[in-house]
Fold this sequence. Notes:
By secondary structure, the chain is α/β, with parallel strands linked by helices. The chain has one domain (28-184): 3-Layer(aba) Sandwich (Rossmann fold). It has six helices and seven strands, in the order H-H-E-H-E-H-E-E-H-E-H-E-E. It has helices at residues 8-14, 25-29, 48-57, 70-82, 123-133, 151-164, and strands at residues 38-42, 62-67, 89-93, 108-114, 134-145, 166-170, 177-184. Strand 6 and strand 7 form a beta hairpin. The structure holds S-adenosylmethionine. Residues 5-6, 11, 14, 43-45, 48-49, 66-69, 72, 94, 96, 114-116, 119-120 line the site of S-adenosylmethionine (SAM). S-adenosylmethionine is lined by residues 5-6, 11, 14, 43-45, 48-49, 66-69, 72, 94, 96, 114-116, 119-120.
Amino acid sequence: xxGRVCPMWVGYIMASPLRRLLQNPGKILGDYIxxxxxxxxxxxxxxxxxxAAARLVGSNGRVVCVDLQSGMIESxxxxxxxxxxxxxxxPRVCGEHSLEISDLVGQVDFALAFYVVHxxxxxxxxxxxxxxxxxxxxxxxxxxxxxxxxxxxxxxTEAAAQKAGFTIIGHPKLRRDRTTVFVKN
Length: 185
Ligand SMILES: C[S@@+](CC[C@H](N)C(=O)[O-])C[C@H]1O[C@@H](n2cnc3c(N)ncnc32)[C@H](O)[C@@H]1O
């Protein structure tokens, strides 16, 4: 299932304001994030969703932004600073086989993996790490592009999440994407 990692030039396109014409990050996340929450953005790239999440959590919340590529994280840091959101973001570079977030066990209210899972080599490991950091009742939103992910591959992603302990609670409608919201029981 794992594919090539998103190159930096695609990262710039994905962080472009033009993307908002197709995907409004505040609207997509607004049903899940409340002020004061701790949010985890897995494979955050340059922060298209992280910065929207940082606005939603407010000054008492925080968004942990994790990505494999240091260039993505450096760009996210600059964008957060320009938007006055640095204090609410916690940008981190991780390894290919681990998010390296064991310090967050049981602390996260909401996790997001948007267009990331198809790039990750160890999906069961990813699901286990995310499950561990969520609070009981915490929700996890996965979106994968239909063009990159077959039905079978997406079902394998859902199965890996369920094996880690998650329960499926919804499939938000996003054109072009396969989506699932999971909950930690
Ligand atoms: C297609 S981009 C999506 C970015 C962002 N979620 C968005 O929707 O704008 C995928 C990102 O996942 C990151 N990534 C790929 N494999 C990863 C891994 N094993 N752990 C963490 N991040 C990873 C890539 O570096 C890239 O920035």
